[in-house]
Design a protein that fits this description.
alpha/beta; Rossmann fold; 164 residues; 5-stranded parallel sheet
């Protein structure tokens, strides 16, 4: 059975890693959608889809890599059209992992099972919070997997975030 999990992963953090592990415990293959892949680099989208893909792949082990395929998912202004677009990008799936009630209801109308993802330390593990910690030179590296930390340092994320 195949599943779909879409996120922006700006940046890929420990909560995201936990979500991947949870989703993989329910499916054989996981299609991982990198949302907002068509958006330019800006304050709320500071890392390109390729950079986020690199964070993810450098943060997971080979057993996970063998079960995950990453797809770039562009944003559209219409949720119904967005879901239709996703179906042209990713292979068939039977389960969607999402905590978004609108997305959940749209998939349920299509008879696709929706499973909510348990949040891990949601108050600490949010992309917005981690970006703010990086930008203000506070401790953040314990909130991301080691692979993400290396990619963020290589990208000089602190300066990029300050400029944006």
């Amino acid at each position: 059975m195949n599943g779909l999990l879409i996120g922006r992963f700006q940046p890929f953090h420990l909560g995201h890693l936990e979500a991947l592990q949870f989703a993989l415990s329910k499916v054989d293959k996981l299609w991982l959608g990198l949302g907002s892949s068509n958006k330019p680099i800006e304050n709320t989208n500071p890392f390109s889809a390729e950079e986020r893909k690199k964070m993810i792949l450098s943060s997971i082990d080979d057993s996970m890599k063998n079960k995950i395929t990453i797809y770039f998912i562009p944003d559209l202004d219409n949720h119904v059209k967005w879901i239709e677009k996703i179906d042209t990008i990713v292979p068939k799936y039977e389960i969607v992992f999402s905590n978004d009630s609108l997305i959940g209801s749209l998939y349920l109308k299509k008879a696709v099972k929706v499973i909510p993802i348990p949040f891990l330390k949601r108050d600490q593990l949010s992309g917005t919070r981690i970006r703010d910690l990086i930008k203000t030179d506070q401790k953040w590296d314990d909130l991301v997997p080691f692979g993400s930390k290396l990619v963020l340092e290589m990208l000089d994320a602190k300066n990029r975030l300050k400029i944006l």
